[in-house]
Specification:
heterodimer, A: 257 residues, Rossmann fold, six-stranded mixed β-sheet, three-stranded antiparallel β-sheet, B: MetI-like fold, 10 helices
Chain lengths: 257, 255
């Protein structure tokens, strides 16, 4: 938490949808400032607006009001986005997929290959450059998706339940790899998850959101020492935080469905 | 590899049985030549026109029409399908006329095409085009509509231009469905080409058939029919090779 530069400034952002029966509030006004290099977890039940918030930050959807300011000095692609599914192009090999953001922004093939190979190595897919997505396991595909999101070096990485489709063991591994990638790249990461354990294990701060209507309930600072690993999961402070997050989510609003 | 080899043996065996039955009907059973010419007489007729160069002129003409009709039909089918999926409001306007055109039997329109576009190449290509267009169009619409919405998110995140989006994401994603339409269209194209030549003109395999039938040159008729079969096989092989190249990422492509 040494950095103090504001990377993402969210001020009173809210989102309503027009549905058949009138308007639906997907997200009540949220305000938070996220510092450069910070790792934020967003945890909450379905329908709490956590994915909506991520889509608003990425520019995929427009907010109904409020403002989001990214300190990214006019970059064309300020954010990398990792979806719940890998969303790789199935007709392209892994290296072509990872290089895709570079190919489509006019980076030379040689430079693109170099960057893509480095990233593939970093996410642990060395040797699978020429493989097609369907030849890889779900966890490996998600690694490739992370490499792609990082390929044009965005300062911000947004991840929408990236590991919810992989088995628990793979998930633990991917969490550790993500921490390693975060530490070596210094990205600002926002990760949406259903899992309070994952949220507590990874983050500097955990945003707890509740559903119907979706709103930010509270933000917890995570004071667990870094680097984190298996010993973190034995730390009483970690367990206390996980229990606290559970209690936060188990309010009437969270239990209403 | 051994599977492909045994398939080749099966094909050859089936062909041999067919050839034997043909020979048996004309030889021991002694069917007259004007009803069923023997394999040898048919072969001789084929060799004769091949040597005079007549065969290549007719075959070339038919093949050229098919290829042109296929290419134009594909481009138009994909283009209109894409425009309709990109602009759903336009689809409301175009749906009605397209359904009417699609259900109209194109073969029945063939005489009309001749009246409109004359006895030459144009009326033939128009007929083939109309037969290829709809299956490709229907396949392409299905392909474009089935695009994963997350792919749209991806192109938006990457700020892709319309051309990049079409070339890099939408077209390859729709290719399997487009190919289903194209394979149906190719069979239709051959039918349309031969039919158009029956009705008008002085060149093409279809013309060769009507000429041979009218002059009771049954061996020549058989030779022409055989050539259309060969043409159909060639088209099938060409499309299968193309499919293997374009859609190998789908995994097992059945030929």
């Amino acid at each position: 938490m040494s950095q103090s530069e504001r990377m993402i400034d969210i001020a009173g952002v809210h989102k309503t949808f027009v549905a058949d029966h009138g308007t639906v509030t997907a997200l009540e006004p949220v305000s938070i400032t996220i510092r450069e290099g910070e790792f934020i977890s967003i945890v909450g039940p379905s329908g709490c607006g956590k994915s909506t918030l991520l889509r608003l930050i990425s520019g995929l959807d427009q907010a109904s009001g409020g403002s989001i300011t990214l300190d990214v000095s006019g970059r064309k692609r300020p954010v990398g986005f990792v979806f719940q599914e890998p969303v790789l192009l199935p007709w392209k090999s892994i290296i072509d997929n990872v290089r895709f953001p570079l190919d489509t922004s006019g980076v030379s093939r040689a430079q693109g290959d170099k960057t893509a190979l480095d990233l593939i190595k970093m996410v642990g897919l060395a040797g699978f450059e020429k493989a097609l997505p369907r030849q890889l396991s779900g966890g490996m595909r998600q690694r490739a998706a992370i490499a792609r999101a990082l390929s044009d070096d965005p300062p911000i990485l947004l991840m929408d339940e990236p590991f919810s489709a992989v088995d628990l063991l793979t998930r633990d591994n991917l969490n550790d790899e993500l921490l390693r990638i975060w530490q070596s790249t210094g990205k600002t990461i926002l990760l949406v998850t259903h899992s309070v354990e994952e949220a507590a294990y990874l983050a500097d701060r955990v945003m707890v959101m509740t559903a119907r209507p979706g709103k930010l309930k509270c933000v917890h600072n995570v004071e667990l020492p870094r680097p984190r690993g298996e010993e973190t999961k034995l730390d009483p402070a970690y367990h206390a935080l996980v229990a606290q997050l559970r209690r936060d989510l188990r309010t009437p609003a969270g239990e209403a469905h | 590899m051994s599977g492909r080899f045994s398939a080749a043996i099966d094909y050859t065996l089936a062909l041999a049985v067919l050839l034997f039955a043909w020979w048996f009907a004309t030889g021991p059973m002694a069917l007259p030549t004007y009803l069923l010419p023997s394999p040898l007489k048919t072969w001789n007729a084929l060799v004769t026109i091949a040597l005079t160069g007549e065969l290549w002129r007719h075959l070339g003409f038919t093949l050229q029409n098919i290829v042109l009709g296929l290419i134009l039909g594909c481009i138009a089918g994909i283009a209109i399908a894409y425009v309709m999926t990109r602009f759903p409001k336009l689809a409301v306007w175009l749906d009605g006329p397209l359904v009417i055109l699609q259900t109209a039997p194109k073969i029945a329109l063939a005489p009309l095409f001749i009246v409109w576009f004359g006895f030459g190449v144009l009326s033939k290509i128009v007929l083939i085009f109309s037969l290829v267009f709809f299956p490709v169009f229907v396949g392409a619409v299905a392909g474009f509509r089935a695009l994963d919405p997350k792919m749209k998110d991806l192109s938006k995140l990457l700020g892709l231009s319309s051309i990049q989006r079409f070339r890099q994401i939408e077209l390859p994603a729709a290719m399997p469905e487009i190919f289903v339409g194209l394979k149906i269209g190719a069979v239709q194209a051959l039918v349309g080409a031969v039919l158009a030549e029956w009705m008008a003109g002085k060149v093409g395999l279809g013309y060769l058939m009507t000429f041979a039938a009218a002059t009771y040159k049954t061996p020549l008729l058989f030779a022409a029919v055989l050539m259309t079969v060969v043409l159909g096989l060639l088209l099938h092989v060409a499309l299968t090779i193309l499919e293997r190249r374009l859609l190998s990422w789908k995994g097992a492509v059945n030929g």
